[in-house]
Amino acid sequence: MQKKAAEEYGMLDFHKLIAEYRNCPCGQTHECAIDDIVIESGAVHHVGEVLARNGFPRRLLVVADKMTLAAADGILESLTGFDVTRKVYDTLRVATMDDVRAVEGYFDRCDAVLAVGTGSIHDPCRFACARCDKKLALFATAPSMDGFASYSAPIVDGNFKTTHPAKCPEVIIADTKILAAAPAQLKSAGFGDMVSKYVALIDWQVSHLLTGESYCRRVADLTRMATDRILTQAELVTAADEDAAGAIFESLLLTGIAMSFTKTSRPGSGTEHILAHYWECKELLEGKIPNFHGEDVGVATLLILEYYDKLARLPAVTAHREENDWDEIYHVYGALAPDVRRLNTPDTITDAIDPRSIEENWQKIIQIVRSVPTADECRAAMRKAGCKLTPDEIGKSPAFVAESFRYHPYMRRRLSLKRVSHMLNLPFH
After folding, report:
1. Cβ–Cβ contacts within 10 Å for residue 331, how many?
2. % of the chain beyond a pLDDT of 70
3. How confident is the model at residue 4 (pLDDT cuts 50, 70, 90)?
4. Of 59, 184, 227, 331, which residue is 20 to 30 A from 321 by alpha carbon distance?
């Protein structure tokens, strides 16, 4: 195999990194089920070789859409020795439970899956393989998202987007030549998804502070390192440069590995993702095709960071028990209300929080917020990376943004600083 020297773009030794986290001082055993990671130029021509050396069974299901299969030109030819069945969509922008069941429908004649594409292709495959215990390999056609190594998959079921337990793949393969040639919009979306980690790290640490939720500083630091790293490469994101594409994909993969270590999306997803999910679900109800997920997440990140900056300017706060008009909330959610009711019944995520603990820990919360780059700093980097920056650029009206900003936290049972702020006497909900 013609292998590009890892040193050329500072590629990490993933196997060594994963081994270093198995016995963590935090007391948790951080595991990641990935057996092999290949990031190199020309990798598309050696996919079959990689799968064979990792013990993949002969009967193989290849899942792709027409665009991702075309991008991965040569991948089918590389699968010599495998009995290949194809599931090729015309296009797939939104992964649904129907797609999960469609993949599972091939499992009576296939023993493993090779998913070719990015999130919308990979997610139903990861969920289906988890449900049916099938081996899984992912081939990435764009550095557009961070879920390659995660144990969770966002799937739309009845227009409600829910995160499900999913398979961490045994093998991940990326061809830097293909990554570099990916559409600029997809690469910018991947950058927006990475910047969102700053919000995720704030929310995770705040929840740990107020509720004692499990938290690992080393895993958080891994995410922070990967995010800081990609922020310095903003100008290279849309360039057709293999070294830059390899480094950016590596950073995305690191955050996925961080999520695999915790078996949750905490290291990579906070209230900014929930806000983006709110937008996507509401648009699906209207029959619209949502934007690329990373585009929505990037804009949501800037909105949340601006809000958190406002919070951090308050020298002190007065807190109270969260008071909600549930009839109003369910009315706003409309057809999504049954799912929201299920997540918030019998008790809500804030019931266990003593308002006094918010007041007493406010200075620590301020320090947490100020530990990450500001909205202005992130916006400047995103501009260099060609990202969309405002709600208007992603088709969101001011009224819709205001509604979503107020009500989005209720669609996930996950504490965030945004949800905590609903316990404060503040005018900017």
Report:
1. 10
2. 97
3. very low
4. 331
Q: Are 117 and 227 in the same domain?
A: yes
Residues 76 and 44: beta-carbon distance below 8 Å: no
The confidence score (pLDDT) of residue 429 equals 59
pLDDT surpasses 90 at 11? no
Contacts 24+ apart (CB under 8 A), 325-329: 329/407, 329/410
Strand partners, 162: 155
Q: What is the pTM of this model?
A: 0.92
Per the structure, the complete domain to which residue 71 belongs is given by: 6-182+212-262
Tokens of 280: 């996507």
Interstrand relation of 160-165 and 112-117 (parallel, antiparallel or unpaired): unpaired
250 with 344, same domain: the answer is: no
Q: For the chain, give the secondary structure using H, E and C.
A: CCCCCHHHHCCCCHHHHHHHCCCCCCCCCCCCCCCEEEEECCHHHHHHHHHHHCCCCCEEEEEEEHHHHHHCCCCCCCCCCCEEEEEEECCCCCCEHHHHHHHHCCCCCCCEEEEEECHHHHHHHHHHHHHHCCEEEEEECCCCCCCCCCCEEEEEECCEEEEEECCCCCEEEEEHHHHHHCCHHHHHHHHHHHHCHHHHHHHHHHHHHHHCCCCCHHHHHHHHHHHHHHHCCHHHCCCCCHHHHHHHHHHHHHHHHHHHHHCCCCCCCCHHHHHHHHHHHHHHHCCCCCCCHHHHHHHHHHHHHHHHHHHHCCCCCCECCCCCCHHHHHHHHHHHHHHHHHHCCCCCCCCCCCHHHHHHCHHHHHHHHHCCCCHHHHHHHHHHCCCCCCCHHHCCCHHHHHHHHHHHHHHCCCCCHHHHHCCECCCCC
325/255 same-domain check: no
Give 136-168 pLDDT, tens digit per residue: 999 999 998 888 888 888 899 888 888 888 999
List of residues 6+ apart from 82 with CB closer than 8 A: 48, 51, 56, 58, 59, 60
CATH number at residue 117: 3.40.50.1970
| CA–CA dist 426, 404 (Å, integer) | 17
